[in-house]
Amino acid sequence: MEKKRFVGKYETILDHNPTPEEFEEITGIDWEDRLLLIEINDTKTPHAGWIDISFLYEKRGNLEMAKKYDKPLPQWELNRQIIDYVY
Fold first, then answer.
1. In the chain, what's the furthest Cα-to-Cα distance?
2. Whole-angstrom Cα distance, residue 14 to residue 60?
3. What pLDDT, on the 0 to 100 scale, is given for residue 71?
4. Which segments within the chain are labelled E, that is strand?
5. Distance separating alpha carbons of residues 74 and 13, to the nearest angstrom
6. What's the pTM value of the predicted model, to 2 decimals?
7. CB neighbours (10 Å) of residue 68?
């Protein structure tokens, strides 16, 4: 039987190979629960995970990549996130 893979539809910090320590420090989620982050981000917007990715690269000293992911979100995404937090 083939092993099932859980694939998220949006990019997260997990797509950038964080160490367990980096992941826990940046997200506040235990490494053992890392797949929950994919489920959480998949209910949000395409760029919801970018801030964590930016922090990861900043922590690693790669400011060019950090800046790439540290962009303002489009207004429609900001409005969507506000609605998500209210409900």
1. 45
2. 15
3. 74
4. none
5. 20
6. 0.71
7. 13
> Residue 6 has what pLDDT?
54
Query: What proportions of the chain, in percent to the nearest 5, are helix, strand and coil?
Result: 60, 0, 40
pLDDT single digits (tens) 10-44 = 888 999 999 999 999 999 999 999 988 888 777 77
Six-digit token string for 51? 């801030």
Smallest CA-to-CA distance from 85 within 43, 49, 56 is with 43
Asked if 67 contacts 46 with a C-beta cutoff of 8 angstroms, the reply is no
List of residues 6+ apart from 12 with CB closer than 8 A: 37, 38, 41, 49, 52, 53
Q: Give the whole-number percent of the chain exceeding pLDDT 70.
A: 71
Which residue's structure tokens are 């190979």?
A: 17
Residue 25 carries which side chain, given as an amino acid letter? E
